[in-house]
Amino acid sequence: MKLTKLKINTKTQKYSIIIGSNLVANVSKILKENSINFKQCLLIIDKNISKQFISKIKKSLHTKKIYVHFFKANEINKNFGSVNKILDTLLDKNFSREDCVISIGGGITGDISGFAASLFKRGLKFINIPTTLLSQVDSSIGGKTGVNSKYGKNLIGSFYQPNLVISDVKFLKTLPKRELICGYGEILKHSLIANKSFYNFLDKNSDKILKLSSPFIEKAIYESCKIKKNVVEKDENEKGLRKILNFGHTFAHAYEASLGYSKKLNHGEAVILGMQSALNFSLKNNLIQKKDCDSILMHISKANLPSKIKKFFKIKDLKKILSFMTKDKKNNSHKINLVLLKKIGHPIINREYEKNNLSEFLKSELRN
């Protein structure tokens, strides 16, 4: 059980991210080593998780009282109704604050589980076992939880840090290529906002990472988590620096919402498209040098990542996209607040633009 440990220390919580292979067979040992104790737990499990992994986790937790809640993980089910079902189980089984919720699934499962954990008796123990590359490098770190509504994505939620994150790379072997690409998008984002040498590593090794070759995949996960850790520790509640993690996301969330969170475009793919939009908008506004912009766009093309918003949208969709952009939670006025890029490793936050500016830009993107 070779593992790497990354320690997170925020104002509200100290916890570890454990990265390695075949960790789920040793969950009890990992809990003990991290001084996490509880009498009973609720496993909130994505219905797509293989029975083999579930069996290993249950076997490892055999000394605990275990309840199981299966969850059909998709953006449409990421709502209050799903959270209420979890809370009903916790109340019915008389859980205490010293008991535990364990999420086993991707980012949606983690968001729902963490939000329920934050609400129940104002907070009980929460362990995240992320099973997708996207959740291992992004959503499982930093304590953002929440649900979607008809007004947009993640507009209702809380900041609630986990007690422990266990990232087992064996889960990744079960994922389709499309899911790996989604996770890679967030890895790329972290390199673009914080670390040019990491970007150079990705530029040389993207193929090996997407093929889950060791030690490249482990290094990519670790370095990506380290970047997010450094940001979250400095700005837990997104008052300033943490906004850089939203690079590409104002566009991305609007793209997802405009399609009704359909399977046509999932979150990671939307983020990749959103980063390209943010890059092109940065170039249009003379914020980034063409050389850096071209390098990133070439990398996206070389790695066969999604690259054209016009594959998903037409000019007639523009009004809907802009409507969701104006409702984005980062906005403080009628203007649209964007995170843009000055050069690789140097993002720019709190750039506000009129809706008309974005409308003209997106029109040109959809025509090209």
Structural overview:
This protein is of the alpha/beta class. It folds into 2 domains: 3-173, 3-Layer(aba) Sandwich (Rossmann fold); 177-367, Dehydroquinate synthase-like, alpha domain (Up-down Bundle), CATH 1.20.1090. Helix content is 45%, strand content 20%. It has 13 helices and 11 strands. It has helices at 27-33, 51-60, 80-92, 107-119, 133-139, 177-194, 196-210, 216-234, 249-258, 267-284, 290-302, 318-326, 355-367; strands spanning 3-9, 14-20, 40-46, 65-71, 100-105, 125-130, 144-149, 152-159, 164-168, 336-343, 346-353. The strands form 3 sheets. A 7-stranded mixed β-sheet has the order 1-2-9-6-5-3-4. A two-stranded antiparallel ribbon has the order 7-8. A two-stranded antiparallel ribbon has the order 10-11. α5 runs parallel beside α8 (216-234). The longest helix has 19 residues, at 216-234. The chain is globular and about 60 Å long. 46% of the residues are buried. The model has no long low-confidence stretch (mean pLDDT 94).
